[in-house]
Amino acid sequence: MNANLLPNSGNVDGSDSRRNMGSWISGCCGNPKTQLIRLWEFGSSDRIRFIFPAKMGLALTLLSFFIFLKEPFQDLSSHSVWAILTVVVVFEMTIGSTLRKGFNRFLGTVLAAGLALAVAQISILTGDYEEVIIIGAIFTVGFLTNFLKLYPTMRPYEYGFRVFLITFCFIVVSGYKTGRFFQTAINRSILICIGAIVALAVNVFIYPIWAGEDLHALIVNNFDNVAASIEGCVDAYLACIEYKRIPSDILTYEPSDDPLYNGYRSAVESMTQEKELLGFAIWEPPHGRYKIVKYPWKSFIKVSGALRHCAFAVMALHGCILSEIQAPPKSRLIFRSELQNIGIESAKVLRAIGDRIEKMKQLGVGDILSSVNKAAEELQDKIDRRSYIFVNSDKWEIGGRQQDGEDGGSSRRGRGGGNEGDSDFNNNHFAIKSQSEAVLDLRYVEFEIHSGESSESMSPGFVESKETSNETTKPTYHMHTAINAQSRIYESASELSLSTFASLLIEFVARLSNLVDCFEELCKIAQFQEP
Amino acid sequence: MNANLLPNSGNVDGSDSRRNMGSWISGCCGNPKTQLIRLWEFGSSDRIRFIFPAKMGLALTLLSFFIFLKEPFQDLSSHSVWAILTVVVVFEMTIGSTLRKGFNRFLGTVLAAGLALAVAQISILTGDYEEVIIIGAIFTVGFLTNFLKLYPTMRPYEYGFRVFLITFCFIVVSGYKTGRFFQTAINRSILICIGAIVALAVNVFIYPIWAGEDLHALIVNNFDNVAASIEGCVDAYLACIEYKRIPSDILTYEPSDDPLYNGYRSAVESMTQEKELLGFAIWEPPHGRYKIVKYPWKSFIKVSGALRHCAFAVMALHGCILSEIQAPPKSRLIFRSELQNIGIESAKVLRAIGDRIEKMKQLGVGDILSSVNKAAEELQDKIDRRSYIFVNSDKWEIGGRQQDGEDGGSSRRGRGGGNEGDSDFNNNHFAIKSQSEAVLDLRYVEFEIHSGESSESMSPGFVESKETSNETTKPTYHMHTAINAQSRIYESASELSLSTFASLLIEFVARLSNLVDCFEELCKIAQFQEP
User: Fold this and answer.
1) Which residue of B12, B142, B302 is in closest CB contact with A156?
2) Domains and CATH numbers, chain B
3) Which residues does UniProt assign to the signal peptide (chains A, B) (predicted)?
4) pLDDT tens-digit profile of A35-65?
């Protein structure tokens, strides 16, 4: 079942509500047939959407038979509306939330009834001051209830406090009108109990919907999302995909269509929903595959939290793709196989853990991280051997000042040229910059990419600055125009940005080990099967 | 006023609720005096906590006078409990949420009353089938209401649907019992209107609490938090603060005591609360400083989203501090002033924008970003001049294979040694690794930090690997033990990690410009004052 179905899941931006309702209503009036088809499609895409309302309708129908009761149940029958109202108020989609609300309602009602009866007794005993006592009691109880529910640890019981206040006022007021405080309290309690029992019975015995199962499915789904996102990020980086214009939704962290972005965002955003489902799931008795009393849902949340920590690393990787400063495609190709390997292996690890969580099985023998760690080491090793790609020694202070530029330049060139495998990867990489608008406001110069030294077709600005920096170094640096200085700066930044991507990818791999630890802890606590 | 006060703000982990309530109750019974003092302190820390309950108590008291009405209002008086219940249900802390709930309740009640009267008429007309019609209607209405409220655009009206169903059931059932459908519907509607009007009047005219103001304060507060976090991150990085053991709360993205972490986390986490407050604020009429009809709260949210995008960059920076792979302290010192400058200037920009949002003023003339951009350029320029710090050419393929190791080594040493300013920053940086547990499971070797080449006191493992790599290069690399290979790999990774931190900091600066754009848009739409 899709966890997003929960009415309280809060995925909808409340700010759109007025507009949406307006457009929905106008759409409804405009073409009822289209709307009916749309509603039918909405319902049939997940049968829960038909089952839940039908269950509620059934519970209401069962209780409405009460109103036809004759003597000797006339008294119950005349208050039967309370049982129906209880169902409307308490009946929630999942069993956990129904139980929690039912508990709140029960406790609130019982305590309020007790207090109301005490107040009634006192008011009757005082005689002339009856009205004063009643009004004073209503103010005091209203004040205290609303004060206490602000207390942080009391917040989950907000509903209970509300019920308490409603019941208290109702009993005191109707008792005063009819003079039958005790009768009112008893009748109301019995009918609320009947309503609660019917609601619970229908909810549990007819096609039960468990919050725990939703939570489980949500977490498993997040693993797939993050796996797709990390794989997609690495692929996009290697394919040198650039955002011509970054969607403003991404820049303000709003929902967007971008699949890479949605992958990690769903894992980050599901936190609120997980917390909510956890609050319900802990109320649910052992059932189905979840046979342990006090099932360790908190450990599931912890694994999901560790996944979120990984998702933030994916977010940082995506930041490299969004960034204005982009590494030259040629340099990325050098690390192609290593980067891709990490992407594939990480996604495998995530999917494997997600799959084990779904099947509630432990990991097999052998280290699940061995392949991905190996891939990370290979990348790091290659970085170690080729880190000259990241740096541009033209402007090195240690080189430029001590020996003349020609010497430094030629020694590098000699080394680079001699290595056949890397003949096209010398230090002359050129910056490629995205057209994104999320940039430092610099008027940069664009360069062409080229491989051979013979076919150098650079922009004049670039040639100039290169020549100058080879001839003289720092002393004349400040004489360059601002544009040239900035283009130089961003050129070398682009060379380092590949190393940033690589470091962040290695950091992502490091975070996987924490995830595996959390998962193994979960295996023990939740008694997952041996593989 | 502290926005966290809102009862629905959902900041409390529902999973703790059972335990918390237990401990609170037991604490309450154990030492009532301590608990009372604690409650008093809780209330007096923010006077809203006393004012809100008092307002609610007042509204209840005003309505409870209804029950003492004599003829000719006997009929109203006997149903007066409905007015009181409406107050309990509709009265929310902020004006926006009260208005929204009141609207839901009004619409739900009116539509339900209309439908119930129609059903009643039909059931009376059919005579013998009255019961069948009533039961059928209850099931159908129960089904449809609960089905429609699952529809995504309908979710904000969940409460309205519930009220609709309650009212419908109530009128149909009580009407059947008393035979006075019409009278029931009219009486109930009048009393609900009275209750709603009293609730609204008390809420608006006595110490009004506006959701919009809370939203405003929340966003301004986030700017301060992120500013403190970015400054703290840079300082912590330069002070080489390491986590001996990373709090598991951070690894699973749970609340923690860490101030750096809390700074950006609060900005990320406030999203849910902002959305909720936005949903209320759009219902509020112009008031106080917010004089525009349909105040552009959405633009505030957009600025906050852009700030969140920056907060994610701070999160990535914090990730560098948490990472196992740490740059040598000595290298960090080289970039000290540039890094610190960016930290200070970025925080200044954030605080300036936060301050302007608070005072609802535009930015002054001149580019607010000029200092921070300049600082970023200086950093990039220095990176450009000193990028040799990030790389370790010992293992460069282009060097090692073509010429013997001695030659390559000495030429580097010659260059490094000749530059007095950098004499202690040659390529021999040693890896410092945190003891964090969020690491690749590598048995790494620890090295001491030292500056002069004369006092080299390395671990044997390191000396061995260094000598070997100087004598022979790649061909013998694979003969090293795994430990040596890995320690080498992490040594060079540590050198690049400084460049990662620097790139991420520059990326943070780039994201500030998007924030400024969003802020300027807000200035126009919300008609902020000229400076």
Assistant:
1) B12
2) 32-205 (no CATH), 211-390+494-525 (1.20.58)
3) none
4) 788 888 888 888 888 888 999 899 988 888 8
